[in-house]
């Protein structure tokens, strides 16, 4: 009876997965085999492997890597400090709060900050540095993207640090390990699952960014997400847009498989 009840409870979940995960993926795959005229073709897949789209793919992975790297460099120390503050829940809420604001509103806010007559250039003028072109650059694109994705990196790392047994850190210090050695041999390996989860939560959506590339980078940064938007909304070539989306889905699935969480014992960590 219990097994039958569990199976009944699984039905809504399976329906959700089929309708909103499997069906959209199959629909995208279906459209990828048709050209603009609606004729069946494999040319979309051949076109994807041309130099134009391969450079776009490399550019997307490069910018996603930079965004993930800088997010990690900011988020790990932040999460580490949060675990040692008195009102950690309040501070964590303040970090997560910006993620509740609409992405478009945040993008327009940075347009105002980085614009020619924005706050940042006003400060630069007052300090004697002079007016600089900040908006529509690679720097502004990466900076705004990192700001948007930091909460998604902080949360899993914070959870991993909170679950870590503090007696292991005390033991390492009692055995004469320096703070850096303790972090490298004990703290970081024990929180590696949180780091992986945070990197995936940032890297995967960063691969398909398109709104920020248009508003903040001024289309100077071209990614696969931008190409998908152009094919679906401008050129109306749904087949090519769907083909790019198929390769993005495959890339994301491979990344998730390669970085899947594997439970390691304390003995494995100590051996390293």
From TrEMBL:
Species whose genome carries this gene: Paenibacillus oryzae
Coiled coil: none
Any one GO biological process: transmembrane transport
Keywords: Cell membrane, Membrane, Transmembrane, Transmembrane helix, Transport
Membrane topology: Multi-pass membrane protein
Superkingdom of this protein's organism: Bacteria
InterPro entries xrefs: MetI-like, MetI-like_sf
Subcellular location field: Cell membrane
Gene Ontology CC annotations of this record: plasma membrane
Protein name per Swiss-Prot or TrEMBL: Spermidine/putrescine ABC transporter permease
Domain ABC transmembrane type-1: 57-259
Family: Belongs to the binding-protein-dependent transport system permease family. CysTW subfamily.
Record field: transmembrane: 12-33, 61-83, 90-114, 134-158, 194-218, 238-258
Pfam families found in the cross-reference section: BPD_transp_1 (PF00528)
Presence of keyword tRNA-binding: no
Main location: membrane
């Amino acid at each position: 009876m219990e097994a039958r009840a569990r199976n009944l409870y699984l039905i809504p979940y399976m329906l959700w997965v089929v309708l909103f995960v499997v069906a959209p993926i199959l629909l995208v795959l279906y459209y990828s085999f048709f050209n603009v005229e609606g004729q069946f073709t494999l040319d979309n897949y051949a076109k994807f492997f041309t130099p134009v789209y391969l450079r776009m793919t490399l550019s997307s992975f490069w910018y996603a890597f930079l965004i993930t790297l800088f997010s990690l460099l900011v988020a790990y120390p932040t999460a580490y400090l949060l675990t040692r503050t008195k009102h950690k829940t309040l501070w964590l809420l303040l970090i997560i709060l910006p993620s509740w604001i609409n992405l478009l509103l945040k993008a327009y806010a940075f347009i105002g900050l980085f614009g020619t007559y924005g706050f940042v250039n006003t400060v630069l003028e007052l300090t004697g540095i002079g007016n600089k072109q900040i908006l529509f650059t690679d720097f502004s694109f990466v900076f705004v993207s990192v700001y948007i994705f930091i909460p998604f990196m902080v949360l899993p790392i914070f959870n991993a640090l909170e679950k870590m047994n503090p007696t292991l850190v005390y033991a390492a210090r009692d055995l004469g390990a320096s703070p850096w050695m303790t972090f490298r041999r004990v703290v970081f390996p024990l929180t590696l699952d949180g780091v992986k989860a945070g990197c995936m939560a940032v890297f995967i959506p960063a691969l398909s960014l398109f709104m920020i590339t248009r508003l903040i980078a001024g289309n100077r940064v071209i990614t696969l997400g931008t190409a998908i938007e152009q094919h679906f909304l401008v050129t109306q070539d749904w087949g090519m847009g769907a083909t790019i989306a198929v390769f993005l889905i495959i890339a994301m699935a491979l990344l998730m498989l390669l970085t899947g969480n594997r439970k390691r014992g304390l003995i494995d960590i100590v051996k390293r």
